[in-house]
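Protein folding task:
====================
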Amino acid sequence: MKPLADYLRRYPEVSVEWRLNDRLPDFAAEDVDCAIRVGTVNDPSVVALLIAEVPRIVVAAPGLVTARRPLDPDELVSLPWLALSTFYQREVRLRHEADGQEKAFAIAPRLATDSLYALRRAALDGLGAAIVSAWLVTDDLSNGRLVHLAPAWRAAPLPMYLIYPASRLQPRRLRTFIDIVRESMPRDETGPQRL
């Protein structure tokens, strides 16, 4: 929301309709200038600007695990699992942050959902371990409602794109919004910002 708030402050004469859903819009039919999408973009009719990467971590309710120490991926296999069906369903792949070692194991989720918020709620309710976007559970982790099960291991980050229809003529409002998004998402030498 920060880039949008900056945009609206700079251009008070502009109004925005902000829609939240998990599908790619029909830009022309729905009169949509741009969209922000987490995950891959395979549509050749759109321009996709990588603006950030979303780190993903393994979490669970404290009562789900008896160990009071970080777990290894081999120990995660026996836990009940929840799945975010848009990004993982039958397999968990984790990478060690320090040495790049990868581990993968099969899961049979107790619950699969396409909603990140439903996944978080199910994890909070103790229904299973889940891979979630780190930003979503920051407060839950700091308040002890969830525990980060394998802090040295992460799932592959998800790319976040600003997408818009490929066209030679872009409305000025779109060009200025793209500029503000680029300004607000600092990059370092290794690539896009990790949220």
In short: The longest helix spans residues 172-184. The chain has two domains: 2-49+164-194, 54-157. The first strand starts at residue 35 and ends at 38.
